[in-house]
C-alpha cells in the first residue's frame, strides 16, 4: 500500500479496539516468567555449549601474542575462537568497529576471544586463563582535548546536513539587546537495558539460526551475513522477546557473531551472553557532547538570532551525536545557524541511544531557553509560547503536519499549578528543602519507514499476524493485535501476533520511535488486502462490505468471517510504503515537561517531587502502554539529569564505572508520582493509523526540566550534566 | 544434591561453582528468574529462600540444599495468576518484562518484611509494631530491583492495590 496522500476516513477510525487503554496481551507470559528471552531457548536448541567472551585489556594497539595453552587444557573446553582462527570476517553496515578484534585492537573490551566449554562455569574459568600480551599505542580519549581537531561529519542519514544557516546570525546576535552565549556538556550515557545482549547460535549445514535479542531484525540479518561472509538467505534471526534495548540492540553485537563462530568451531550450538561488566565498553553508548548555544532576542522577548554548535567524538568512520538538530525546528527566529563537528576518539563505539540527538540536544537548549527567559524577565512558559513557529523556520514553505506545542505548554502549566512558581530562584522553602519548578519543551520527529506484514485467516475466524517487527517493551504485540482486530472487525482475543522472526515479512523494526506508527500501518495494509481476499472468497463486492463483530456484512447478508477460510486458510501479505509527505510537511511530536524538585538546603541532595508530561503525538493507539512509554522515558530523563555518567579514564581510554553498581540509573526511591496527558490529536499526514510515536518524545526535554527546577530551587546554574550535589553544594543559599 | 524448589524435591548434580541462579536457569529449565548483572546490583534474579528474598546470582547452589526455594514459577501460572501478577498486568507494572519476575518475588517478600515489623531506612519509629505501607516505604524497600524501562509507578500501584485488597480481606475475615 502506497501512502502518498493524507489519510481520509478508514476502518481504524471506528476506534472500537484501537485507542482503548488495553492490557498487554503478553502480560501473562511476562509476569509468570514464561516469555522466552534469547538465552533461555532450551525449547528450541538442545544441549548448547557455553561461550565466554574475553575482552581486550587495552583501548588501542596490537595483540603481540595470545597464550591459549592453559585455557585449552582447562576442563570442559571445546574450542577457542580468536581472530587468528576465525577465518576472514567482514564488518556489518551498521557497525563502526569490528566485533572480533585482533591483532589490531580498536577499543577497550572489544571481543578478542571466545572460550567454548561444556558448562558456563568451565567456560568462565578457562577464559580467565587466556593470557594476552599487548603493545599499546597512544589514543585520543578526551573530547575536550580533541574538540579543536573536530571536523564536519559526512552529510546524509537521519542527521542530515552538518551545518545550516539562515539570514545573518552573527550580525543579529551582535545587535540583540538581550543575549546569551553559554556552553553546556552532557556525558557518555549507557543504555543499560536489563537483559544483557545474548544469543544462541545453531548451524544446520550452511544454514545459521540465531536466537538473539535485537531490535532491528532485517538490518541485523544483513549484518550477520556481511560479517560472516555468507548469503543473507542462509541467516535466520529469531527475537520474539527483548529485555529492553533503548538503541543498544539496534545492531548486531559480539554475542551473536561470537556465538555463530563458536558454534561452527565446536560443531554444536553455542550460547553467549555479554557479561554485564563487559557491556559498557564492548557495545555502543550515547556519546558525550559539548554544546555552545547563542540566543539573541529583542526586549519584547522575540528571538532574533539562535545558534547551536555541537561537538562529539567517535572512532574513525563513526558518526556524530546530532545534538543541534532540534534547534533547526523548535523555535522561530529569522537569523539562525547550527553546526555539528565530529572528533576522532579511540573510545568504544558511539551510536544511537533513545532519542539520539534530541535527548542531549534538548538537555542543553532547554536550559539556554530558561536562561534567556530569566534575562528577559519573562516567564519561561510564556517565552516559549511567544517564539512558537508553525512552519519549519529554515524552510518556511514547509508546514508542520501537526504542531500543538503551545497547547502542551498551556495545559501543562494549568495542570501543574505553574502559576504558583516563584520566578526568583532560591525563594521557596519547605522545612529543610529548597523547592523549585522547571519546564522544558520536547520535540522529536516522526520518521516514516516502510513496513510489511503477513496475515492469515483460519476457519475459526482467528487472524494471525506475522512480521519481523519487535517488541522491546514498547507494547508492539498489543497495538498490532488492536490494529488487526479493528481492521478485520474482530475482538482482540481473536488475533494472534507473531513477531521478531526474519522468516516473516520485513518491518520497520523498533528504533527512532518509528515502530508503532509504521509497523501498525504495515499490518493495516496487509489486513486491507486480506479483506479483499475475504470478499472475493465469499463472492461479495469488496467495495461494499463491512467487517464488524466477527461478521462480514454486505447488504442484508451477514457471514461469519471464518467462513471465508472454510476451504483453506486465506493469507495476505502487504506493507506500507510512503511517498513524499515527510518532505512536503515537517512531521514531529511535541511535549511540555514540568518538574518540581526539592534540594536539601544543607547537603544539596536533590529529590524529584512530581513530574508531568503533556504530549501531542498523533493518535495514541494504546493509551495504557503509551503512558508507560512516556513515564519510563521521564524516568530515564531523571537519570540523565541527576546521575547517569560513564566516567572516562582519559589516560587508558575506557569507561571506568562499567557495571550496574557504578553506572547509576534511577531506582524506585528516585521516582515520584508521574503524570502524562495526551492531547487529542490525529495526524492524517503520518499514515493511515494517523499515529506518531511517543517512546522518545517522553525523554526529550526532561533533563532540562529537571535542571531548570533545580535552578529555580537553588539559584545555582549547573551547565554540566549530571547535576550531582558537588556541583552546587558550595554555592547554595546561606542557611538561615 | 537435593533442592526443594516450588515445593518439589529436585535432585541435580552440578559443578560446585554453579550459582543458584544458573542452577535454576541452565540446569532446571526454570528460566523465569533472570540474569541481569550476575553481580548483585540489579535484583532481576530475586528468589525467595525460606520466605526471604535473596539475589540468587550471589548464592552458590550448593549452599541452598534442603532450603525452601520459591521462584516466579511457583508463585502463579498463566491459568492461575498470583494476585500480584494480575495487578502487574492491570497497572502496567512492566514493559520489556525482564526485571518483572524479580520485582514480583521481591515485592512478595517485602510485604512479609513490613508485616513482621522490619524497619527500613525510612522508618522513623523503630519501636513501631505496625509499619505503615506508604508509597515512600515501598519505594525504599523495592530500590534493590532496577527497572530500566522505568515502570516504577505501575509497580508501586500494583503492589499497593494488591496489599490493600489483601488487608481488606484479612480485616473482613477477622471480623
Q: What this model shows, in words?
A:
The complex is a heterodimer of chains A (736) and B (175). With 736 residues, chain A is of the alpha+beta class. Chain A has 3 domains: 2-35 and 448-580, 2-Layer Sandwich (Aldehyde Oxidoreductase, domain 4); 44-356, Aldehyde oxidase/xanthine dehydrogenase, a/b hammerhead (Aldehyde Oxidoreductase, domain 3, Alpha-Beta Complex), CATH 3.90.1170.50; 357-446 and 587-731, Aldehyde oxidase/xanthine dehydrogenase, molybdopterin binding domain (Aldehyde Oxidoreductase, domain 4, 2-Layer Sandwich). Helix content of chain A is 23%, strand content 25%. A 7-stranded mixed β-sheet of chain A has the order 4-6-2-13-10-11-12, with helices on both faces. A 5-stranded mixed β-sheet of chain A has the order 1-25-19-20-21, with helices on one face. In chain A, strand 11 (207-212), helix 6 (217-228) and strand 12 (235-238) form a beta-alpha-beta unit. A 5-stranded mixed β-sheet of chain B has the order 2-1-5-3-4. Chain B is globular. Chain B folds into 2 domains: 2-75, Beta-grasp domain (Ubiquitin-like (UB roll), Roll); 83-174, [2Fe-2S]-binding domain (DNA polymerase, domain 1, Orthogonal Bundle). With 175 residues, chain B is of the alpha+beta class. Chain B contains 6 helices and 5 strands, in the order ββαβββααααα. Chain B has helices at residues 20-27, 72-75, 83-90, 100-115, 135-141, 152-174; strands at 2-5, 8-11, 46-49, 52-55, 68-70. In chain B, 38% of the residues lie in helices and 11% in strands. The chains are: A alpha+beta (736), B alpha+beta (175). Chains A and B meet through helix 1, helix 3 and helix 15 of A and helix 1, helix 2, helix 3, helix 4 and helix 5 of B. Chain A: Residues 32-138 form the Aldehyde oxidase/xanthine dehydrogenase a/b hammerhead domain.
Amino acid at each position: 500500500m502506497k501512502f502518498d496522500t493524507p489519510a481520509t476516513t478508514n476502518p481504524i477510525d471506528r476506534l472500537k479496539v484501537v485507542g482503548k487503554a488495553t492490557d498487554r496481551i503478553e502480560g501473562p507470559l511476562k509476569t509468570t516468567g514464561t516469555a522466552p528471552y534469547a538465552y533461555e531457548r532450551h525449547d528450541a536448541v538442545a544441549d548448547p555449549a557455553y561461550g565466554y567472551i574475553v575482552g581486550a585489556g587495552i583501548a588501542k594497539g596490537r595483540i603481540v601474542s595470545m597464550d591459549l595453552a592453559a585455557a585449552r587444557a582447562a576442563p570442559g573446553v571445546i574450542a577457542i575462537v580468536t581472530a587468528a582462527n576465525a577465518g576472514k570476517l567482514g564488518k556489518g553496515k551498521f557497525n563502526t568497529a569490528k566485533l572480533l578484534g585482533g591483532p589490531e585492537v580498536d577499543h577497550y573490551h572489544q571481543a578478542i576471544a571466545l572460550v567454548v566449554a561444556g558448562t558456563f562455569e568451565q567456560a568462565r574459568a578457562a577464559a580467565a586463563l587466556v593470557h594476552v600480551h599487548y603493545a599499546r599505542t597512544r589514543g585520543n580519549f578526551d573530547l575536550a582535548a580533541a574538540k579543536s581537531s573536530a571536523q564536519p561529519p559526512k552529510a546524509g542519514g537521519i542527521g542530515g546536513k552538518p551545518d545550516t544557516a539562515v539570514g545573518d546570525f552573527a550580525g543579529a546576535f551582535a545587535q540583540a539587546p538581550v543575549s546569551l552565549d553559554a556552553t553546556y556538556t552532557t556525558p557518555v550515557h549507557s543504555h543499560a537495558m536489563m537483559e544483557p545482549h545474548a544469543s544462541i547460535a545453531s548451524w544446520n549445514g550452511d544454514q545459521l539460526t540465531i536466537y538473539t535479542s535485537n531490535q532491528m531484525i532485517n538490518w541485523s540479518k544483513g549484518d550477520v551475513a556481511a560479517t560472516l561472509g555468507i548469503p543473507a538467505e542462509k541467516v535466520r534471526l529469531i527475537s520474539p522477546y527483548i529485555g529492553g534495548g533503548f538503541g543498544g540492540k539496534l545492531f548486531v553485537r559480539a554475542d551473536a557473531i561470537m556465538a555463530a563462530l563458536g558454534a561452527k568451531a565446536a560443531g554444536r550450538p553455542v550460547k553467549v551472553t555479554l557479561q554485564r561488566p563487559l557491556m559498557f565498553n564492548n557495545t555502543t553508548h550515547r556519546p558525550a557532547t559539548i554544546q555552545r548555544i547563542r540566543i539573541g532576542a529583542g526586549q519584547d522577548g522575540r528571538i532574533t538570532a539562535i545558534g547551536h554548535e555541537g561537538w562529539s567524538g567517535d572512532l574513525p568512520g563513526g558518526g556524530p551525536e546530532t545534538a543541534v538538530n532540534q534547534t533547526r525546528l523548535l523555535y522561530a527566529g529569522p537569523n539562525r545557524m547550527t553546526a555539528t563537528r565530529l572528533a576522532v576518539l579511540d573510545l568504544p563505539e558511539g551510536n544511537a541511544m533513545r532519542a539520539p540527538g534530541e535527548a542531549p540536544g534538548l538537555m542543553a537548549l532547554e536550559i539556554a531557553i530558561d536562561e534567556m527567559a530569566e534575562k528577559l524577565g519573562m516567564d519561561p512558559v510564556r517565552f516559549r509560547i511567544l517564539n512558537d513557529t508553525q512552519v519549519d523556520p529554515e524552510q518556511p514553505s514547509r508546514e508542520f503536519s501537526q504542531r500543538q506545542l503551545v497547547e502542551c505548554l498551556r495545559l501543562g502549566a494549568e495542570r501543574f499549578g505553574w502559576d504558583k512558581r516563584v520566578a526568583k530562584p532560591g525563594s521557596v522553602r519547605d522545612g529543610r528543602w529548597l523547592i523549585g519548578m522547571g519546564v522544558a519543551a520536547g520535540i522529536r520527529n516522526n520518521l516514516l519507514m516502510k513496513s510489511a506484514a503477513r496475515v492469515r485467516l483460519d476457519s475459526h475466524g482467528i487472524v494471525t499476524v506475522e512480521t519481523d517487527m519487535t517488541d522491546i517493551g514498547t507494547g508492539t504485540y498489543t497495538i498490532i493485535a488492536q490494529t488487526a482486530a479493528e481492521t478485520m472487525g474482530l475482538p482482540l482475543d481473536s488475533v494472534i501476533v507473531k513477531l521478531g522472526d526474519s522468516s516473516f515479512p520485513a518491518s520497520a523494526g523498533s528504533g527512532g520511535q518509528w515502530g508503532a506508527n509504521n509497523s501498525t500501518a504495515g499490518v493495516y495494509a496487509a489486513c486491507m488486502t486480506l479483506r479483499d481476499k475475504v470478499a472475493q472468497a465469499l463472492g461479495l463486492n469488496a467495495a461494499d462490505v463491512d467487517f464488524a463483530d466477527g461478521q462480514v456484512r454486505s447488504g442484508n447478508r451477514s457471514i461469519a468471517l471464518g467462513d471465508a477460510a472454510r476451504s483453506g486458510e486465506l493469507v495476505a501479505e502487504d506493507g506500507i510504503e510512503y511517498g513524499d509527505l515527510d518532505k512536503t510537511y515537517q512531521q514531529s511530536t511535541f511535549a511540555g515537561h514540568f518538574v518540581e524538585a526539592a534540594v536539601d538546603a544543607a547537603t544539596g541532595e536533590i529529590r524529584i517531587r512530581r513530574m508531568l508530561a503533556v504530549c501531542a503525538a498523533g493518535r495514541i493507539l494504546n493509551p495504557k502502554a503509551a503512558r508507560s512509554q512516556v513515564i519510563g522515558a521521564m524516568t530515564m530523563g531523571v537519570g540523565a539529569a541527576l546521575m547517569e555518567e560513564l566516567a572516562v579514564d582519559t589516560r587508558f581510554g575506557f569507561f571506568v564505572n562499567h557495571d550496574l553498581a557504578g553506572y547509576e540509573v534511577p531506582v524506585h526511591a528516585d521516582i515520584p508520582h508521574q503524570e502524562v496527558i495526551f492531547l487529542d490529536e490525529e495526524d492524517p499526514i503520518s499514515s493511515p493509523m494517523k499515529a506518531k510515536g511517543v517512546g522518545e518524545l517522553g525523554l526529550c526535554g526532561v533533563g532540562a526540566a529537571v535542571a531548570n527546577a533545580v535552578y529555580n530551587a537553588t539559584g545555582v546554574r549547573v551547565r554540566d550534566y549530571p547535576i550531582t550535589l558537588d556541583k552546587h553544594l558550595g554555592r547554595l543559599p546561606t542557611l538561615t | 544434591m537435593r533442592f526443594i524448589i516450588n515445593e518439589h524435591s529436585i535432585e541435580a548434580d552440578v559443578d560446585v561453582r554453579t550459582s543458584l541462579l544458573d542452577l535454576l536457569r541452565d540446569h532446571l529449565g526454570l528460566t523465569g528468574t533472570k540474569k541481569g548483572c550476575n553481580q548483585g546490583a540489579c535484583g532481576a534474579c530475586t528468589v525467595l529462600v525460606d520466605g526471604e528474598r535473596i539475589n540468587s546470582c550471589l548464592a552458590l547452589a550448593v549452599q541452598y540444599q534442603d532450603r525452601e526455594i520459591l521462584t516466579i514459577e511457583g508463585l502463579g501460572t498463566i491459568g492461575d495468576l498470583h494476585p500480584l501478577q494480575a495487578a502487574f498486568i492491570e497497572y502496567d507494572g512492566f514493559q520489556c518484562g525482564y526485571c518483572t519476575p524479580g520485582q514480583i518475588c521481591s515485592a512478595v517478600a517485602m510485604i512479609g518484611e513490613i508485616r513482621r515489623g522490619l524497619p527500613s531506612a525510612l522508618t522513623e519509629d523503630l519501636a513501631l509494631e505496625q509499619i505503615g505501607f506508604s508509597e515512600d516505604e515501598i519505594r525504599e524497600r523495592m530500590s534493590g530491583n532496577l527497572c530500566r524501562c522505568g515502570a516504577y509507578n505501575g509497580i508501586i500501584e500494583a503492589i499497593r492495590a494488591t496489599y490493600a485488597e489483601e488487608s481488606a480481606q484479612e480485616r473482613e475475615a477477622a471480623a
